[in-house]
Amino acid sequence: MTRDSKRFLQPEAIARISRLELQARNVVEGFLSGLHRSPYFGQSVEFVQHREYVAGDDPRRIDWKAWSKTDKYYIKQYEEETNLRCTLLVDVSESMQFGSKDLTKYEYACAIAASIAYLLLRQQDSVGLISFDAGIRANVPPRSRRNHLHAVLVALDAQNPAEKTDMYGILAKVADAQTQRGMIVLVSDLFAPREGLYKGLKLLRHRGHDVLVFNVMDDEEIDFNYSGTTRFEGLEDMGEIACDPRSLREGYLVAVKAFHDDLRRQCARQTIDFQTIRTSDHLDAALGYYIDHRIGMRQNARA
């Protein structure tokens, strides 16, 4: 964490951010140590090409022989390196406040974003963050420096889910602003008008971005294991209702399945990877889905 970022944070915020960073590090390093031979991770040995040095690159990777011949700085690229530019889109709308157990959906979404950010920066890729509800709440431009993780975590910690979601408006802004092709990772419960969601995702794909969607759901939102008369309070101005949930469960489960089937089908049409993640799932699951997607990207690029 930079000195300036600490100046404006309360000790409680610093502690939360430190815990989130430690969690991300433990999840990623533990996950990687469990991998055997991976087509993505590991030290690269096969030289492919040079690319021009840009601010933020590790000076130790400069090819000084190339510099002596051209008087320009170049970085050696190896087969493993792809210069990925990734933007994490994290939903901070009010519905993300819900949590029936230890973590709310937003807290879990933050953990996913932090883990992927740590992983990307560990691989010297570039990562940025946009948190949103009805508008963009925080915008951290992509960087590849290791200490950039702190900027991402500070932005995540500063958010307090409170508003509705304007999914299409946000995705359209991202598509317009992201002139350079890259990966977009959307982390959300996707409780938004689906027509706008699909239109926005299609726009991102049309602009050449690779898209991965994590649909974060609480166990009770999927299983609906409530019993006895229960009062449900709707988020995002949805009102409240008191009812016997057992009488609604069958119809509710059918509706949730239809919701997920439609999301999966529409994403498949746009060649978008879609995964539903429960807040009770270990974060290894999210990283596994991300890595599978990343490997698929590299294989498609070679085809």
The Rg value, from CA coordinates, equals 21 Å
Overall structural domain count: 2
Q: CATH superfamily name of the largest domain?
A: von Willebrand factor, type A domain
Beta strands, count? 10
CATH class of the largest domain: Alpha Beta
Keywords summarizing the entry:
single chain, 303 residues, alpha/beta, Rossmann fold, 2 domains, six-stranded mixed sheet, two-stranded antiparallel ribbon, 10 helices, elongated, disordered N terminus
Describe it for me?
It contains ten helices and ten strands. Helix content is 45%, strand content 20%. It is of the alpha/beta class. Strand 6, helix 7 and strand 7 form a beta-alpha-beta unit. The protein has a six-stranded mixed β-sheet, sandwiched between helices. The chain has a two-stranded antiparallel ribbon with strand order 1-2. A two-stranded antiparallel ribbon has the order 8-9. The relative contact order is 0.13. The protein has two domains: 254 residues, von Willebrand factor, type A domain (Rossmann fold), CATH 3.40.50.410; 32 residues, no CATH class. It starts with a helix and ends with a helix.
